[in-house]
Write a structure and sequence with these properties.
Blueprint lengths: L2 E6 L7 H14 L4 E6 L1 H4 L6 H18 L7 E4 L5 H10 L4 H5 L2 H7 L9 H15 L5 E3 L5 H18 L7 E3 L34 H9 L17 H14 L3 H5 L5 H27 L2 H30 L4
Bound molecules: tryptophanyl-5'AMP.
Tryptophanyl-5'AMP binds next to strand 1, helix 1 and helix 7.
């Protein structure tokens, strides 16, 4: 069966970009694929974390994934640091990727030059090597992600191909799977930047666990433009196109088709808010139930880590043998 792997960081709160760009797709893929999903806590350490907050966020994110529909019975759901093969394979990956390749990663350039960043960890630079290890450890065929991860999947393919050509067939070469709608949800206030887990007040970011009245307000205040024509045109009309993309990701109707149904921005904003709220409501309700029993979540995650390790141990052993390390 085709194997799917994806990961998400437990830093900050989950927003509708994560949900529509990645998680909705993960959820759907569980039926037809052999699915492995991971809360990548080691990746979160590339930026400084408060230990208590990290622990809490890790559990809460696992609960949110389950609330969205990830079923630990049908899929392998686990936390990265509980499977020791990840950092072990990451070292082999670091030795198979060049300094130049890592320097070209836009995510590194963005994060290392942010005004608020006064300490740039070496981990932030080598991060794509750990991500490659995450993916390659499971003989992954398909990686469902949002558009911002495209470059990280491409470098994973390059690393795998280089390793295979140097040391013989070792890794499956994975492909990314980016959804037709929702792959790039933009900030509602700054539709030229992607929605992200920004700090403090974030009028442009809609969180999955946010109060639904606030969600409505954020959409009503979304930035559009002044020419009053509903048309899907990302370059010329980023704000309106973002609303159409979000509505499309929630309803399954193409954004161009949706555009034809509206003459004014007000109703488009209202309907988009309503569609998002309909998606969020059951997730929030299910999350509350799961959050009441963190011990059960931890138990499920341990079971998931054991299942993940059973796969990862074989692949790591193969890689070690091929590269010339003693078993
Ligand atoms: P992370 O935690 O930043 O994001 C998780 C997923 O959400 C998607 N996403 C978005 N999609 C649409 N619009 C947005 N505004 C938006 N923001 C985020 C991301 O594309 C991603 O799919 N490096 C990864 C985590 C990772 C990983 C992996 C992913 C580590 N190892 C192996 C896949 C496979 C990251 O930081 O995602």
């Amino acid at each position: 069966m085709t194997r799917v792997f994806s990961g998400i960081q437990p830093s900050g709160e989950l927003h509708i970009g994560n949900l529509l760009g990645a998680l909705v797709n993960w959820n759907k893929m569980q039926d037809d694929y052999d699915a492995v999903f991971c809360v990548v806590d080691l990746h979160a350490l590339t930026l400084r974390q408060d230990p208590e907050v990290l622990r809490k966020n890790t559990i809460a994110l696992a609960q949110l994934l389950m609330a969205v529909g990830i079923d630990p019975e049908r899929s392998v759901l686990f936390v990265q640091s509980q499977v020791p093969q990840h950092p072990q394979l990451a070292w082999l990956m670091e030795c198979t990727v060049s300094y130049g390749e890592l320097s070209r990663m836009t995510a590194f350039k963005d994060k290392s030059t942010r005004d608020s960043t006064d300490f740039v960890s070496a981990g932030l630079f080598t991060y794509p090597a750990l991500q490659a290890a995450d993916i390659l450890l499971y003989d992954t065929d398909v990686v469902p992600v949002g558009d911002d991860q495209r470059q990280h999947i491409e470098i994973t393919r390059d690393i795998a191909e280089r390793f295979n050509s140097r040391y013989g067939e070792t890794f499956v070469i994975p492909e990314h799977r980016i959804p037709p709608a929702g792959a790039r949800v933009m900030d509602l206030q700054h539709p030229d930047r992607k929605m992200s887990k920004s700090e403090g007040e974030s009028p442009g970011t809609v969180f999955v666990l946010e109060d639904l009245k606030k969600v409505e307000k954020k959409f009503k205040r979304a930035v559009t433009d002044s020419d009053m024509e509903v048309r899907y045109d990302i370059e010329a009309k980023p704000g309106v196109s973002n609303l159409l993309s979000i509505l499309s990701a929630c309803t399954g109707t193409a954004p161009e088709e949706l555009a034809a149904e509206y003459e004014q921005y007000g109703p488009l904003k209202g309907d988009t808010a309503e569609a998002v709220i309909e998606v969020l409501k059951p997730i929030q309700a299910r999350f509350e139930e799961l959050a009441a029993d963190p011990a059960e979540t931890e138990r499920l995650l341990k079971v998931g880590a054991d299942k993940a390790e059973a796969i990862a141990a074989d692949v790591l052993a193969r890689a070690k043998r091929n590269v010339g390390l003693l078993g």
